[in-house]
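Morning run. Coffee first, then this:
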Amino acid sequence: MTDAFAPVWLPLCVLVYTAITLYWARIAAIENGNHQSYFSAGHGVYPWVATLLLAGASLSGWFLLGGSVEIARHGFALPAILQGGVVLALPGVLFFKRMWFAGQRLRLSSQAELFRSYYQSDVLVIVSAGIAVLFAVGFAGLQMRAVSRIVSALSDGGVSPLVVSVVLGITLFGYVAIGGMRAVAFIGAFQSVLLASAIAGFAAFALVQVGSAGGLAARLQALAADPHTAGLFSVSGVIRFTAGLGRTDDGTPPDSAMLNLGLALAFMGFQASPLAAKIVLSTENAKHFAAGQTWVMAGVFGALVLFGIGLLGAAGLASPETGVASVLLALRAASPWFMAWLAVGVIAGVQMLAGLGLLVAGEALVRHIYKPYFHAALSRKDTVTLCRVAIALLALASVLMQALTPVTLSALAGLALPMAFQLWTPLLGLTWLRWITRPAAVIGVMFGLVGVLLTEPLGYQMLSFVGLELPWGRWPWTIHSAMWGMLANVAAVLIISAITSRNAFGEEAREIRSLLQGPLRVGGRARALHATAWSVGLVWLFLAIGPGLMFGNDTFGVAGVGRGWLLGLPSVWAWSALFWVLGVGLVWFLSYKMEMASPLKLDVPAFTPRPRLRPDHRRQERARLTALVITGATGFALIVLLAWSFGH
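And here it is:
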């Protein structure tokens, strides 16, 4: 009976999943009622929906498709991956509550609007839009490509990856274009549950595939006892002074403690991205941030990363044929319905991020760049229509790059997280550090982006294309590009803030400052714990994802000596489990005791700016539009040339 229906389970489940998403998109379109709520769901996304969407989008499909592969290839030399849940929760604790109240005061619904209102900076608006495009086209597109290849393999090549990409892209465009943020949010909550169940299912079957927990431990112990593979179970050092990937001759992977720290900082970039800000600013209230970041993000999803992704990666390390694709292929004959469920879970996880990215990128390009500079008289209805066109073009670009220029797609994907991490400085200036001036925030971000670009393949390949050769490759000194960028970013912020006026802010910025320093000011008990919070936080960062990882190499036993690992797990994995528990406690402490994300019932009236005359800029807009067309055509030609060069 099972064999007779085996070929139809996957297309049937995909069809049901597609029908559910399109039905909810239709319901969302009806509930939107008008074009205003298309972009933010009328600021009415339920807290539990926002919590699931934030957690699921933060993990997306990368941890399942990429994190497990990293562990399977390189072992536990990058344990920062296992701390993904806590690492992703910490920025949410720091930013989300204050960001939400700032947006509520000014009735804003996007990160670009926050930057424009607070810093009065067009540069930060453009940077925010560019990062959203990187996530929509590059970061999510690379994951879509991996899923398309897996689905194609499950059909034994009967359906090409290009066809799968087109079908998934059309489905994605359908529900995003129809339902807007309301559809992205509610469907995203459903997709988060599918992704979480898929991670658990993959881990369980991978364990069955390698025999048992005892069998897996025995295989890992045998690998650890072999001098040739013992390095897979330890962090090699604090830092390695190499020229970086692509310039190092020994071929060994960069696995230092500093690279772990930089990788964790890159993960933190997602919570500072315009995608996370869109979820936060569209939420109904701010009561859920503490519980969401503590128990859902750091707790439940953190456990899925630590044990689910860790187990799947360990199984792939012990048995190289064990992985996402191989598990699905093995299940195709043994349990086709289970295989279909897991495959749909992977598709849902990737589409969740891609849908959110497409909506945010389309809105940023149309509402925050095109309309203010090129067509200020554009109506609300036409803005939504043009945004749908932009979403379609972005989805098409992603599908084409998946098929034609995968190398360029991978290079763009590698820029998304470290570049988003550079937005920490303007967000810190907006929410906590009043001494960060507008010029400092803008220049700091630009220095940070340059630092990232010069330590990633796309940057030094572009320079090489014009005849400039850098003496380093990717991640020199085993320091991640996110950290190189932030070092340049912070240096610029400190210097520029010291020499520019700290009071040169507009009316909207003063309103936000007044709100954050008034009703949102932390209480006396929290201020008394200020030193404790700094100490505990820095100690956790040092030991869990920083140089202190070296202690985890042998704290729970030395591989291949005597009885081996004390808990039956690689020592670094057990060390990560310990600090995951402590990390959940840290997130709870910062959220509730330090009042960074604690629930607060506060009525925030809308800010009404003083009336201002609106001069007629139609002539300037036409001139800008002409320049935009010329620049766009030239840029398109250059992009095609570069993409062709890198793709071939």
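Residues 2-236+255-283+298-599+622-647 form a domain with the Sodium/glucose cotransporter fold (CATH 1.20.1730.10). Good start to the day.
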